Amino acid sequence: MGNKPVDYVIRVLDSPFAVAAADWNALLALQPQAGPFMRHEYLAALHESGSATPATGWTPRFLTLWRGTQLQAACALYLKDHSYGEYVFDWAWANAYEQHGLAYYPKALAAVPFTPVPGARLLARDAAARAALVQALLGWCSNEKLSSLHLLFGADEDVAACADAGLMQRQTVQFHWQNAAPAPGGDTGYRDFEAFLASLSHDKRKKIRQERRKVAEAGVSFRWARGRDIGTADWDLFYRCYARTYREHGNPPYLTRDFFRRMADTLPEHWLLFVAERAGRPIATSLIAVDDPLAWTLGTFDAKTRDKVAYGRYWGALERVDCLHFEACYYQPLQWCIAQGYQRFEGGAQGEHKMARALMPVATTSAHWLAHPAFADAVERFLAREGEGVANYLEHLEQRTPFRQG
Q: Which InterPro entries match (predicted)?
């Protein structure tokens, strides 16, 4: 292949099991933005459970760089024959290809299936290995005559390496909550949920209290469990809620019950479950992913430099209660984050309504390469216009701060 990385052996693997979990996770632990979703156990569970497989349109082609027996760089890569489960939308590009008699699919995707959470995508021991990995990806996609390569929700280091290699960049907007900065010599973050509410403007504070009151007056209470304290019955309940809510919106759930069984077995420490109950019966659940850096073998990075982060992931309900979604998916997790000293809660893709709950807009970046020169030129012009629109949108949102002024 052109620009072949020097001194590396390139291996393209058709399964996450072709690389040892210890090797993969050790490399992941070196990344400043590691997170639980690129862990070998998570990717393997997606494959083994039937959630992300060739049958569902996700054909694994993990690209790895080796020096002797040591893994130097790696990327979870998938061949896709559709654009579902990605959250960075390129359907218009696919339609344009089809209208011109060209095949857009299969395409190559460097991402975590069904998981729009920013983090490391190009796992590498150093900047040179990361740059070599990008060149290997481009070379392999070219040799396979694929239409395109897309890296979604990349870490800052990934985005920079892709930009150096000439890939186009695209920004989308998510909404994240940030704990209060520590006062000099003081405790980290808000003292409690009431202190957080006190930081908001009067109308936002009033609205949140009204919404929480509606749930409480409906007789709903909450309990939570983390890790191995989440029993099989709770996991079964969660999946029943999750699957029902998906089907109510006319879609089958992306993830199987077996996927969550594997999470309970292999990554229990990364899951937090909230259960809403009324009259002694469970009626809704909210599943949160959590990342505590102290649980990692951190390589060269000090745990003190990494945030403790929670991620809003899945929810479902068996009964309708006014404002229950807000309580289960925002207020209960934020209250828990404050009590546990977590610095950030990422609320996921889309949703301006999250700003009223103090989740603020954050730009996330993806990188794209298209093999066809004319289409690449057209997409580059489109992304320039879209980028201006996103920048204006972010500026507009930032002017609508929910926080008290002065």
A: Acyl_CoA_acyltransferase, FemAB-like
Contact (CB, 8 A) for 52 and 99: no
What is the DSSP pairing of strand 309-317 with strand 281-291? antiparallel
Q: Tens digit of pLDDT for each residue in 166-218?
A: 999 999 999 999 999 765 555 668 999 999 999 999 999 999 999 999 999 99
> Based on the number of CB atoms within 10 Å of its own CB, is 280 exposed (0-12), middle (13-18) or buried (19 or more)?
exposed
Fold match flag (9-175+362-398 vs 180-342): yes
What are the extents of the domains in the chain? 9-175+362-398, 180-342
Extended beta strands in 52-132, E state = 58-60, 62-67, 70-75, 77-80, 107-110, 122-124
Class of domain 180-342: alpha beta
pTM over 0.90: yes
Within 10 Å of residue 267's Cβ, how many Cβ atoms?
18
Question: Under CATH, domain 9-175+362-398 is a member of which superfamily?
Answer: Gcn5-related N-acetyltransferase (GNAT) (3.40.630.30)
Written as six digits, the tokens of 266 are 């292999």
Q: Which helix (H) or strand (E) holds 98?
A: helix 91-99
